[in-house]
Each structure stands twice: as structure tokens, then as C-alpha cells.
Amino acid sequence: MVTKSKIKKSSGWLGALTLALAISACSSSGGNGKAVESLDREAKGTLKIAYFNEQAFYMQYGNAFQAMFPNLELEVVSTESVFSAEDPVAEMEKIMAERQPDALYLTEEQYAALSGKGLLYDLDAVVKQDKFDLAAFHPSVIEMLKARGSGKLFGLSPSFSTQALFYNKGLFDKYGIPYPTNGMSWEEVLQLASRFPSKKEGEDALYGLSQSSQTTNPFELVRAIGEAKGLNYADVDAGTVSIDSPEWKAIFQEIIDGYKTGSLTMPSSGGGGMGGTMISAAGGGKAFSFGPDSMRFMSGQAAMTIDGPMLMNMMGVNSKMGGAVRSTVAVKEGGKGATKPMLSPIKDIDWDVVTVPVDPSQPDVAGGMSLDGVFSINAASENLSAAWEFLKYANGEQLAKTSAKSSPSLSARTAFKNEAEGKNIDAFYALKANSQAMLQTLPTGFAEDFAQVAGEQIKKVTEGAATLDDALKLIQTKGQSLLTEAKTKTVQP
């Protein structure tokens, strides 16, 4: 319990009374019925914070927060076991029950599940009490937090993830093709990609559009375009799959045509041939790992790519790291993994970004937007004042200002966008989250299993081993079975 003086666990209620009498500032009761008092800088006590790594916590948050409240003892409750747990939410619940952390760092999925179970503190009242300015945040970040919290605010997120369309100005100039612009449709971008003379192999390989390093399945692009058009391939309430339709077929056909001609890169699955690339400066120092899909754009072998802010931070890495940049490339030799050092394939190219492609029916909406992590307060915490002070700091203006110069993440505070040497950083902030996609909840594991089936069929059609009509029928049939099975597992006690 945080009070004006050191309080033992056995005197928690006395400490609460002391705090209430000693502090005359205003207080407010949150949706959980507990008051949150103002906390002065001399307060003593212990604040437990659930975080995945103690060292990382102190580097990012703890040291500076400790300086603000020097008499406040911080205790980091490790959540490392959550990452290997079969049920991450159940593991987090176990940690909350056994260790009783006051504040928690959660994934978006954990945030949604725990808030739905009433385990997180409702911040709406204390936000109003402290006049904490939510208008300073990207509107979609607050929208996502409330959507995941069934309309209420149970946490705050200092950063978010989304993507933009990167393009190589030099390649567009070379072939006399106009640059992409903000708000282009998927069809327009795919047509731009098809105008480049594609070549799939060799050092002079060239693609119109390379997919993100996070994309590992050829169905992901199909799904993204369908989602932008407001299409769903599964209706959980009705228990039906509807992928074998004219609308979905048209998207499949367009993407498969791109894979066949080479204007689009087939996502790398990580198996065989060249794998990931580790970029490091001479003499050690920072190192970054990238898959072959992102490397195609950075090496000048793709005119465009759809990727996140980390790629933006890697462009021009040769000059940033003093020119002495080498890479270690993962290769397959005799069926065994190996590495081979070589000069970095990254080139200093003239590039910029525009918004990800959209659908004309929803021109201001982007898919794929998510929260990097959410800070919340345990609804059972007796240290609400200290926990709220920590949430305010972790999501505050000062830390956002500092992080804008050192972190590749996108700040949720729009006034502190990453510095990008004159590039169109606004492309990452211009669109809103797809609220329809946010509201769709699929049974655990179904989306992954469905994507695997669809991805395998896309590859077969691309290779000429199946027709698109037959592939869609098979995806429809297997997908329906997967949904039925997943729903059955979900309702089992």
C-alpha cells in the first residue's frame, strides 16, 4: 500500500485511512468503486508491476519513474512464463492471483480477455478527474482500447503498429512510372506493380511489389484486400464459411496472377534456400534481423513494399552505421543450417512512403492496425494511486518525446511522431482502424488453420497444379470443417 510513510502488509487498511486523511487533493471513484487519490513525490510503499523482463522494464520505464518517486519501491513481477504458456490468458490470470501485481503490461488479446472478466480497473473516471488528455492520442488507439474493452477504457497504450506503402523513387523514375499516392486503391497499386518488368531470379531480380517481412502466407494479402472491402470469410454466429464467392474469387485471381508473373513476391516461408539476414556494424554494436522479403526492397529488387516503421529505420543503414556494414545470411548447406558473412545487400536508395492501399468504399480505413502493448491496473489493487501515476508516466508526454528519437515504434501521441528525415511519416497516421475487423472474433486457432489451407491452395494454383475453382471449393469445404470443429472446442467446458 502506498502511503506517506512505510506501511507493512498487515497495516494496509490503516495505511489507506492515513492516506485519505493526509491528502486533501480531489479523488474519484472508478468503475470498480475504488477511489484514486493524488500521490505526492515523497510517498513510500511498494508498487508491483507485471512485465516480461525486469532489465528491460527498468531501462524503458523504471529508472525514470523511480527518480520521480524516489521513496517508492518498485517490484517487477515477471510474466516471461506467459510467452510459453498454452493458454496465455489463463497464465496471466494465475500470475495476477498469486503475485497480485498493481499494474500490468498486456498484449492486446490479453487486455481484451482480462477486461471482459472484470479483472482490470476502469480508467474512465480517473482520466476525467486528472484531466488526462486523450485527445492527444491517435483517435484509433483510443478506439481500439475501448473496442477491446467492450466500450470502456481499461488501459492505455504508448505505441501502436500499422503499415505504409514504401516505394523506390529511383525505380519509378527509371521506368517512367508515376509515384504511388496516398489513398490509392488496392487495384491501382497492383496495376502499378504490374508495370515493372519483372524478373524472379538472379542479382538483377525485380518485383513490382514485395510483401512485408511479417507476411509468411500467400493468403494474407488476399485476406487484407477482402477485409478492406468489408468481406468476411467466416461468420462465427451463423457458423458458416463463405470464401467460395464471386467477390473472393476476383481477389484470389488478381493476387495469383501477380504471383505467376512475378509482379508480386510469393511470401517466404523460411524453409530452403536463403533465410534471414542479420545486419551488423563492423566491430560489433547493434544488429538487426530481416527476412528475404524486406531485403528485396532494401536491396533495390522491389519497387514497392508494404511494411512497418522498423523498415523505415533501416533505410540508409550504411551511412547511419558508418559505412562499414556487413551481414550474416542464413543458408542451407547439406540440409543443415549455416551462416555466411557477406557485405550488406542494403543499398542507399531514394525512397518515401504513402498510405497503405484502401478500398474506395472505406477510403479512410486501414487494416492491420494493432496495439503494441497495453498498460492496465489490476482491479484488485490496493495501490491504485501509485499504479495510476505509473500509467500516466508510461503513456505521458515526456516519455513520448524521448521515445520519438530512439524507438522505431509509432507513438500513440500524434505530436511525437518519429523523425524520418523529411519522409512522409504522416502516412502511418492518416488512416483509421477498421472497426468492422476489430469487432470480428474468430475461435482460437481457426484463423491460422484456415490461412494454412488457403495458402497451400494458392501455391498450387500458382504452380498450375490446381484450378482456382477447385481450390476455392476445397478451401470452402475444409474451412467449414475447421470452423465447426473450432466452435465445438470453444463451447466445451
UniProtKB/TrEMBL annotation:
Residues spanning the membrane: none
Species in which this protein is naturally found: Cohnella soli
Protein name: ABC transporter substrate-binding protein
This protein's UniProt keywords: Signal
One Pfam family this sequence matches: SBP_bac_1
PANTHER family: ARABINOSE-BINDING PROTEIN-RELATED, DIACETYLCHITOBIOSE BINDING PROTEIN DASA
Signal peptide start and end residues: 1-25
